[in-house]
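In response to reviewer comment 3 from the previous cycle, which asked for concrete evidence that the modeling workflow produces usable outputs, we include below a single protein chain processed end to end. The sequence was submitted unchanged, and the resulting structure tokens are shown without manual editing.
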Amino acid sequence: CCPGPRVDPMLNGRIANGQVTFVRECTGQGYPGACRQSYSGRISGNTVSGRATGTGLGGAPGLPWSMTFVR
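The workflow returned the following structure tokens.
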């Protein structure tokens, strides 16, 4: 989709009570139209796992996602 790696702004990020939440502004870079996604997940060790909702996710509400903290 993109001429290089995506660089999407993360908005309203928060880490509290073992949860991570943020909004990804993904408009442009190959997606036709407005694109905004909300992510929330629970922290377990150095990993966060949860669900994402919003546009550009292939019509799958509550799409699973995860990330790992690396030092």
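The chain is about 0% helix and 50% strand. We consider this sufficient to address the reviewer's concern, and the full set will be provided in the supplementary archive.
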